[in-house]
């Protein structure tokens, strides 16, 4: 597994890197058979250290965890606990519903835009019907089953996930509804 351990305005020493690799490896190997890479970022927010960890699995799922603590090692340990809890829950689901995936998840390129309106130019904007594009980014659209898409959305903590349905070969959307249930749009 590839590790990328970085710090934002913090020096991440060899001892911390070794601790992160050993602990994260034991957590991930326990619950995920084929992890591909892990990204751990340490930063400081006021008096607390922040640890954000992202692990990509060969099944296409991405597990993320974030923790805060007054010491950097305890911030990572809390983050590793959250990661372990997530992976344990999703391993149960994968074991029950999704036997070994024979091929990795395909990713398709797409454009992602952030749109905003300027309060001063709202009158002129409604005349032209052209929104202001604040940012344009590239994003990946995974090819998943509906169950995998729901798991990916929950792992990422995202309110919505756009994916390509493997069974129907079309673009679908899953989202968290206001009542707490999951909605699925299949055009």
Automatic annotation (TrEMBL):
> What is the protein's species of origin?
Primorskyibacter flagellatus
Q: What does this protein do?
A: Required for dimerization of active 70S ribosomes into 100S ribosomes in stationary phase; 100S ribosomes are translationally inactive and sometimes present during exponential growth.
Q: Name one GO cellular component term.
A: cytosolic small ribosomal subunit
Name used for this protein in its record: Ribosome hibernation promoting factor
Q: Which residues form the Sigma 54 modulation/S30EA ribosomal protein C-terminal domain?
A: 130-183
Q: Which PANTHER family match?
A: 30S RIBOSOMAL PROTEIN (PTHR33231)
Q: Does the keyword field hold Cytoplasm?
A: yes
Q: What is its main location?
A: cytoplasm
A biological process (GO) of this protein is: negative regulation of translational elongation
Highest classification ranks of the organism: Bacteria, Pseudomonadati, Pseudomonadota, Alphaproteobacteria, Rhodobacterales
């Amino acid at each position: 597994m590839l590790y990328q351990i970085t710090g934002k305005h913090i020096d991440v020493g060899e001892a911390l890197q070794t601790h992160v690799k050993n602990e994260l490896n034991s957590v991930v190997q326990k619950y995920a058979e084929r992890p591909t890479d892990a990204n751990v970022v340490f930063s400081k927010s006021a008096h607390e250290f922040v640890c954000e960890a992202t692990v990509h699995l060969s099944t296409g799922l991405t597990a993320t965890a974030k923790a805060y603590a007054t010491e950097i090692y305890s911030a990572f340990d809390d983050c590793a606990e959250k990661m372990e809890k997530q992976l344990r829950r999703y391993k149960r689901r994968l074991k029950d519903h999704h036997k070994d995936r024979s091929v990795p998840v395909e990713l398709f390129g797409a454009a992602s835009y952030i749109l905003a309106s300027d309060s001063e130019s709202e009158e002129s904007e409604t005349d032209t019907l052209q929104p202001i594009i604040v940012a344009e980014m590239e994003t990946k659209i995974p090819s998943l089953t509906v169950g995998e898409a729901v798991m990916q959305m929950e792992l990422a903590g995202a309110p919505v996930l756009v994916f390509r349905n493997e069974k129907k070969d079309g673009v679908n959307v899953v989202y968290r509804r206001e009542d707490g249930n999951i909605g699925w749009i299949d055009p």
